[in-house]
Structures are given as structure tokens and as C-alpha cells.
Specification:
The protein is built from 2 helices and 5 strands, in the order E-H-E-E-H-E-E. The protein is of the alpha+beta class. A hairpin with a 5-residue loop joins strand 2 and strand 3. It is globular and about 35 Å long.
Length: about 100
């Protein structure tokens, strides 16, 4: 009590990603997320509409909104953010030619 509020050690963000069509591209996107500064654990599950839900444990200072579009090879863009889930459209790397 009386101590100044501090940032939590970890935050968790959820990304609903559409556009990844192969197991290799899903695994590659997961690896690329895991390599971002401040990111710890990344898990992925199938979403309800053909999307994939990536849960990302990260530092509270990590700005996924800024970092995701910089992931190499995926041409990723943030297309929405509602109910605690960031919506991302990404291209399968083999199709991004």
C-alpha cells in the first residue's frame, strides 16, 4: 500500500491472423513473432473463421501494433483491434512475390 504503481512484468496480446495457408507459414509467423524484442512465449491455435489465434506473452513495453507490420516476408498489416484481439492480415511468404 502506498507504493507507486508499476508496469506488470508481462503482458499478453492476442492476434487473429488471416492469410496464412500452410503449416510452414503459420510456423514461420510464430517464429518471427518470437524473435521480436521483448517477446517471450508465442502459442497458436485455430480460430473460428479460418484464422489463427496467436497468443503472445511480451514485455509491457513491446509495441506489437508497430512491430507486426515489420515481420519479414509476410506483408502483415493490422486491420482491426476489438475486444482485446488485434486482427492481422498476412500473406503466405510463398505467395508474396
Amino acid at each position: 500500500a502506498g507504493a507507486p504503481a508499476s508496469l506488470p512484468e508481462h503482458a499478453t496480446s492476442r492476434l487473429a491472423v488471416v492469410g496464412l495457408v500452410s503449416v510452414a507459414s503459420i510456423a514461420g509467423f510464430k517464429r518471427a513473432l518470437a524473435k521480436l524484442p521483448g517477446v517471450g512465449v508465442v502459442t497458436v491455435a485455430s480460430g473460428p473463421s479460418g484464422d489463427f489465434i496467436f497468443s503472445v506473452s511480451h514485455s509491457p513495453k513491446t509495441d506489437l501494433r508497430a512491430a507486426v507490420p515489420t515481420l519479414p516476408g509476410f506483408s502483415a498489416s493490422i486491420t482491426g483491434d476489438a475486444d482485446g484481439v488485434m486482427t492481422v492480415t498476412a500473406a503466405d511468404p510463398r505467395d508474396a512475390s
